[in-house]
Amino acid sequence: MPVLFKRSWSDRIVDGGIYTILALFGLLTLFPLYYVVIVSFTPYTEVLRNGGFLLIPHTLTLDAFKVIFTSGVVPRALGVTLLVTVLGTALNLAVTTLLAYPLSKKFLPGRNAVLMGIVFTMLFSGGLIPTFLTVKMTGLMNTIWALIIPGLVSTFNMLIMKTYFESLPQEVEEAAKVDGCGDVATLVKIVLPLSMPIMATLGLFYGVTHWNAYFPGIMYLNDRSLYPLQVVLRNMIITPSVSQELAVPQTQLSALPPESIKMATVVVAIVPVMLVYPFLQKYFIKGMLIGAVKG
Amino acid sequence: MGDTAAAAPAEQRRRAGRGKGRRTFWRYRWLYLFMIPGVLYYLIYHYIPMFGLVVAFQDYNLLKGITGSPWVGLDNFRTVFSSPDFPVLMKNTILLSVYRIVFNMLPDLILALMLNEIRVRWFKKWVQTLTYGPHFLSWIIVYGLVFAFFAPGSGLVTTFMRDMGWTPIDVLTNSSVFRPMLILTDIWKSTGYGAIIYLAALANINQELYEAAAIDGAGRWRQLWNITLPGIREVFVLLLILRLGHILDAGFEQVYIFLNVRVYDVGDILDTWIFRRGIEQMQFSVPAAVGVFKSLIGLVLVLGANKIAKKMGGSGIW
């Protein structure tokens, strides 16, 4: 609400309350993340000495990270996840763009039929079992592709992109056509450079989805060497015996309690996401809004 | 003579029409080609599974496939609805969904309303950046965080409670705190991000309304009741419709990851049951029947809620 008049005392008290609550909520969001990072970098004896609670550690150690990065299991899972994230996001963006661009052209015959067919999938779906059987039938089981192909286009993201394309000035594209650009050249040379904000937003959405993917891993993969990071992380958190999960001899871990190793793995999974999203913040808020306005 | 004279232009027009269609198609050939991968994706991974729902009416056998498995009519549905598990699953699913609707939508809204009152720009930006963060983390990571705080023996809260001389409770295996645990972690994860959409609606409210109201002597609370809340009603109703349509989903990802045998009585929902039976135990027909039930109810709910929203004067989803 705009400030029009001088605030009264009761207004100031209300404001003070709001600022306090928001600051507390912000800290409450941050604290769990801060805590796992601290625990993963602190020698466990020090954690225990403080009754599990410490805000500023006296000594730092990289032991837990050394163990998980020399084990073989976590680096391989990290490799799978990185590959799937990069390759998957690239394919997601390519196919989504190619679908959203023609669908943004209102003059295209057949556009509405295709659009309705796609939107219908948001209302009704075959569900888990038939989807599983389809993935099996198309031969993706136990391949990296099972983590990529079944989620190739997100309908929500596609609609956001279509709305964005519709908001671009048509004159620019028409001018390009007059100058002899075909549809391919128009899309690549004119539309894409104008669409970097939406590409960044959807790139983030798709990328985070791949990075965080768990279900495709447990549904479609039996081969442990293909497990993505989240599956390995989950197995590690619930197991009492970290050494077995990491496939390293217990002796190598003797100095380290399982908690340190578990938390270090959580940190490995958190850090890349936390480093990326603040930079894309201004884009994804806009992207959300475009999507929300038209639905 | 007269006949042919009348017929000729019609024939010509028809031919021209067909030719025009072909020409249009040729003119836009690249646009159609662009769509092929996407359309194929939807056909294969969305429409084939819809037809795959027929396994719910079969005694499906993985080796015989859909074409070879015997048809059993509604037997699978009878099995589901007469099972003693079913009422429990329904109750857990709906209860959890309703909790989520209430305890997600309200915090989202309240956070947005509070952020809207903030005029110190950097403070607002910091609170937003911090609270968006958890949205981008996986449920596995959230599970890891819960573990760091509540793990028996080593968690922060557990240790604290023991040091205080209280008996620590294991929140992950305790039926009485399992649902609140799901809801609280969900609030932690999704509130900041959920507020974005309300903030957008708030930004769209005509500022002159506030000025006029202030001149008429309306205080802050009056402005909140008479301008702000009506201004975001549409968005709220829209989101409510969308969530009602998914009332039988109840947050599968989170629940599956947090679930364990000790809390099945309160935490097992339709989706987790389908997953366990179908993917883990390789029984396909009965879980698929539950899936058909779920999809149909979801469809009816979305269509119905949309109709009600339109009747109430809103714009609905379409």
Describe the structure.
Chain A: Its main location: membrane. Chain A: It comes from Paenibacillus azoreducens. Chain A: The chain crosses the membrane at residues 20-41, 80-101, 113-132, 144-165, 186-206, 261-280. Chain A: Belongs to the binding-protein-dependent transport system permease family. The complex is a heterodimer of chains A (295) and B (318). By secondary structure, chain A is mostly helical. Chain A has 2 domains: 7-34; 61-293, Orthogonal Bundle (MetI-like fold), CATH 1.10.3720.10. Chain A has helices spanning 9-41, 44-49, 63-70, 73-103, 111-123, 128-137, 155-167, 170-178, 183-194, 196-212, 215-220, 229-238, 242-246, 250-253, 258-294. In chain A, α4 runs antiparallel to α10 (196-212) and α8 (170-178) runs antiparallel to α9 (183-194). The longest helix of chain A is centred in the last third of the chain and has 37 residues, at 258-294. The relative contact order of chain A is 0.13. With 318 residues, chain B is an all-alpha fold. Chain B folds into 2 domains: 1-57, no CATH class; 74-311, MetI-like (MetI-like fold, Orthogonal Bundle). In chain B, 75% of the residues lie in helices and 0% in strands. Chain B is built from 16 helices and no strands. In chain B, α6 (121-132) packs across α9. Chain B is globular. The model of chain B is unreliable at 1-7 (pLDDT under 50). Chains A and B meet through α1, α4, α5, α6 and α9 of A and α1, α2, α5, α6 and α7 of B.
Summarize the structure.
Chain A is an all-alpha fold.
Fold topology:
The complex is a heterodimer of chains A (about 300) and B (about 325).
Chain A: H1 9-41, H2 44-49, H3 63-70, H4 73-103, H5 111-123, H6 128-137, H7 155-167, H8 170-178, H9 183-194, H10 196-212, H11 215-220, H12 229-238, H13 242-246, H14 250-253, H15 258-294
Chain B: H1 2-27, H2 29-52, H3 65-68, H4 75-82, H5 85-116, H6 121-132, H7 139-150, H8 156-163, H9 175-203, H10 207-215, H11 220-231, H12 233-245, H13 252-258, H14 264-267, H15 270-280, H16 285-311
Helix pairs in contact in B: 4-16, 5-9, 6-9, 12-16, 15-16
Family (chain B): Belongs to the binding-protein-dependent transport system permease family.
GO cellular component, one term (chain B): plasma membrane
Keywords (chain B): Cell membrane, Membrane, Transmembrane, Transmembrane helix, Transport
